[in-house]
Structures are given as structure tokens and as C-alpha cells.
Amino acid sequence: MEIEHGVSLKPYNTFGIDVAASHFLKVDSLETLRTALKAPGLPPPFLLSGGSNILLTGPVEALVLLMDTRGKEILSEDADGVTLRVMGGENWHELVLWSLEMGYGGLENLALIPGKTGTAPIQNIGAYGVELKDVMHSCEAVDLSTGALKTFTREACGFGYRDSIFKREARGRYAIWSVTFRLTRRNHRIRDGYGAIREYLGQEGVTQPTPADIARAVMHIRRSKLPDPAVLGNSGSFFKNPVIPESQYRELQTRFPDMPAYPQEGQTVKVPAGWLIDTLGFKGTRCGAAGVHDKQALVLVNHGGATGQEILDLAREIQDAVARNFGIAIEPEVNII
Ligand code: EPU
After folding, report:
1. Among all residues, which ones are annotated catalytic?
2. Which among 243, 298, 328 is the best mutation to test ligand 1's pocket, defined by most ligand atoms within 8 Å of the CB?
3. Per-10-residue mean pLDDT, the chain, length 337
4. Quick one: CATH architecture of 72-184?
5. Could you say which architecture CATH assigns to the domain 7-67?
6. pTM as predicted
7. Which residues does a 6 A CB cutoff place in the pocket of ligand 1?
8. Is 271 left (phi over 0), alpha (psi -120 to 50) or beta?
9. Please, which residues have CB within 8 angstroms of residue 133's CB and are 6 or more apart in sequence?
């Protein structure tokens, strides 16, 4: 076990924030993780995976454990589908591409989401009509206090919109070790209901889309409005889309007739935070090196050299403006450290 000190986390967070970790260890086996958890005199552990959903606002005085495990294993297979176990350190998008090459359906709508497989369950990643919970069978997680491996069924994960028990009651308690998926080999469930997907397929003349066609459409849409973290630091959607009472929405509609909304359970609607932020004129604005993406107002970006605090200040300014103008509280989706 080789613990490094004063390691810059810049290469390990997609915002590209340059802060140091007091202690840093790459975890590539269960043995390494268990040894680190038991070792005396070390600061508390801090799990880092793809770094695609965090905003680092200061030096990290912790034992940063970079999840770096690899491997995929087919647990069972029949004519209809496969049950596939994937180690947490596997890159998410590479997994999606590999699954499509193998002819498996299920992950196509989730193409190009940054990050690693192990963090997918934490916030129940979702895009274009599919969430992780639709394809996940179970996951294994290491209890950080005992080192024991525990299996969580999909139900036990308590999934919600960008939410799971790993963000709530079990927060900070587990390292997700592997994720098991149920994927299809035939009779794929094609989810092309999202307007932009249909538009793309229509332009391409595709009438009977395969999972690979859906992935192509998703990649095209994402590349057209979401910045590539390798080029422009960002963490995808910075805020969650707020859910408000239908009555409040009707009131707002009298002032903002074109405000979009998606009906939810219990007489509530989900309003796109991107629309709220865009309507207030924030799209493409900059505050020093921190900015709002010019093609998607829900995404905050680091134009180069921004500190986490600068990005957080901009986020707060946006939250205040949305609260003042619409009476809606928007919450960060990104974990602020
Ligand atoms: N909109 C604007 N201006 C903007 C951005 C959006 O008016 O700058 C409007 C759009 O016109 C549309 C609506 O807001 O009417 C929704 O926009 P979009 O379809 O782009 O989706 P989103 O709500 O902005 C969510 C997810 C994304 C996911 C897409 C597609 C959240 C917080 N974000 O974005 O997830 O890719 O839907 O499913 O739920 C992520 O979590 O990092 C992420 C990128």
C-alpha cells in the first residue's frame, strides 16, 4: 500500500479544480482497500471515482481513495439477455460502447455520461428517458467501517430522481465495489420518446432503431449541447430540476406562458432548471474563470484556473436569482466538498 502526500486532484475531477489531497491512494483491489481502512494514524477516507460530480472548494484533508478497479464478468446468459457484473472503477462510457459492441441493449440512452461505473448508483444517473435503476440488478458495496462486502438489490438502493440511499441514510458509509446489470440480447426495449432523439433518427432515415442507433443519437445530442470535460471543465448538470406544486406552476404560467413542465406524482410538476437560468439571462455569462455554458444553462464551466469557491459563488448567485424571480429553490446536483 503506497500512500502519496500532497497530490494535486486536478486530473481527477472533471471541473479541473487544482486542490491537493493530504493523503492519496489508488485502490485496485479489495485487499488494498481493507488494508487502508484498518491502517492506524490515517485521516478519514474520502472516496473519489470519476470525479465527475464533485466541486472541490478547498484542500482535501483526508485519505483520498481513488477507485481504480477493473473487470467485467458475465454471470449468466440466455437467448434473451445477460447478467453482467462490472467493477466500480470501469469507465462508464467505455462500458456503454462495449455493451453495444457485444450486442447488448439497455445502456444506450446513458452513453457519454462522464464518470465511472461505481458511482452510477449513487445518484441514479439518468438521461433521455432512462435511469440506472431501469437496468441495474444489484450492486456490491464495501462497508467502510468494517471492510465487509454487502449486496444491495435494486429495491434496497431506494432509487429516486438523481437520488439513492447512498446520498441519504447511507451517505459516506460505503464504497460501491461492483454493479450488476440485466441487459437484453433480443427484444430490446427501445426508448426513443425524447424529442431530440426522434428528430435525429428522422433526419438519419432510421425507422426501426437498434440500441446502437439510440446511442448514436444520444451522443450526437450530448455533443451538441454539453461541453466535453477534457476541453472545458464541468460537471454536467450543476443543479437538479426542481419539483414544484402544480398550483405554483399555474401561477407562474400567467407570467411565463412558455415555461416548460413535466407532470410528476402528487400534483407536482418538474420544471427544467436550465430554462429558469436561461430565462434570467445567465447562459454564456462569466464571472472570472467561472461561467455558465453557452449552449446549456444548467451546466457551470471552468474556463481555466477557476477555484471551486468561484464556481460556488456563481452557483449561489444563480440560486438567489431563481429564488427571487420564480420563488423556486434549486438545489445542486453536484456534491460540494
Ligand atoms: N432549456 C432551456 N435553456 C437551457 C437549457 C434547457 O430553455 O439552457 C430547456 C430546454 O429547451 C428544454 C428543457 O429546458 O425544454 C429541458 O432541457 P434538456 O432536455 O436539455 O434537459 P435538462 O433538464 O436540461 C436533464 C438532465 C441531464 C440529461 C438531460 C436529458 C437533470 C438535472 N439533467 O437535463 O443530465 O442529460 O435531461 O435527459 O436532470 C446530468 O445530470 O449531468 C445531465 C446532463
Report:
1. 162, 237, 333
2. 298
3. 94 97 97 95 94 96 97 98 98 98 98 96 96 98 96 98 95 96 98 96 97 98 95 96 97 97 94 98 97 97 97 98 98 95
4. 2-Layer Sandwich (3.30)
5. 2-Layer Sandwich (3.30)
6. 0.94
7. 127-128, 226, 236-237, 240-241, 260, 272, 274-275, 278, 283, 296-298, 333
8. beta
9. 124, 154, 157, 159
